[in-house]
Automatic annotation (TrEMBL):
GO terms for molecular function: phosphoglycerate mutase activity. Keywords: Gluconeogenesis, Glycolysis, Isomerase. Pathway: Carbohydrate degradation; glycolysis; pyruvate from D-glyceraldehyde 3-phosphate: step 3/5. It comes from the Bacteria. This is 2,3-bisphosphoglycerate-dependent phosphoglycerate mutase. It holds the Pfam family His_Phos_1. Substrate binds at residues 9-16, 22-23, 61, 88-91, 99, 115-116, 159-160. Catalyzes the interconversion of 2-phosphoglycerate and 3-phosphoglycerate. It catalyses: (2R)-2-phosphoglycerate = (2R)-3-phosphoglycerate. It is an enzyme of class 5 (isomerase). Homodimer. The active site is at residues 10, 88. NCBIfam families: pgm_1, PRK01295.1.
Length: 206
């Protein structure tokens, strides 16, 4: 039984390139983001990894990344499940602001707290703790059971919603998870044991 779970952050988006807080805003992938997503699919194909089901967010940058990966794998007809539980963290009033402009407005220290603390939310937005509170139950209820049935599962989502899953998979805590960096378009391949613990983790970097 495989018990294979692959996590992939979306490829570079237009707002990633412009250094803007994106959150729940729907933005397109850049040309580089498209290349990153296709390259992710190619690296998975080289490893002989295909999927039975895919989970993604309600945001089009993750959905497009998912689509491009599946195109490279020749698997465009498999089941794809969308849910906003896997959406990026909502940055509230910071959404659409350049990160440097935000630092000038609120100060370097305050913006760093909003970005890198576990439980401090920006005005009108979510903390990482809030994101974990919606993404993790969805993982436990909807994604993990499919993995434990022996299905090969891809989750194409966002930096912060994927941190919620990594927090459990890598046995991290509220102090260590905010510092975890996820590169765009780089798949993380997990093999799970029968008790849901991780047997093996591979990062498929270029």
């Amino acid at each position: 039984m495989d018990r294979l779970l692959v996590l992939a952050r979306h490829g570079q988006s237009d707002w990633n390139l412009k250094n803007l807080f994106t959150g729940w805003k729907n933005v397109e992938l850049t040309d580089l983001g498209v290349q990153e997503a296709r390259a992710a699919g190619q690296r998975l194909k080289q490893r002989g990894i295909g999927f039975d089901v895919v989970f993604t967010s309600d945001l089009m940058r993750a959905q497009k990344t998912c689509q491009l990966i599946l195109e490279e794998l020749g698997q465009t007809n498999i089941e794809v499940i969308h849910d906003q539980a896997l959406n990026e963290r909502d940055y509230g009033d910071l959404t659409g602001l350049n990160k440097d402009d935000a630092r000038q407005r609120w100060g370097e220290e305050q913006v760093h707290i909003w970005r890198r603390s576990y439980d401090v939310a920006p005005p009108g937005g979510e903390s990482l703790k809030d994101t974990v509170a919606r993404a993790l139950p969805y993982y436990v209820t909807n994604i993990l059971p499919r993995v434990m049935q022996g299905q090969r599962v891809l989750v194409a989502a966002h930096g912060n919603s994927l941190r919620a899953l990594i927090m459990v998979l890598d046995r991290l805590n509220s102090q260590t998870i905010p510092g975890v960096e996820l590169s765009t378009g780089v798949p993380l391949v997990y093999k799970l044991d029968a008790d849901t613990s991780v047997i093996e983790k591979t990062i498929l970097e270029a």
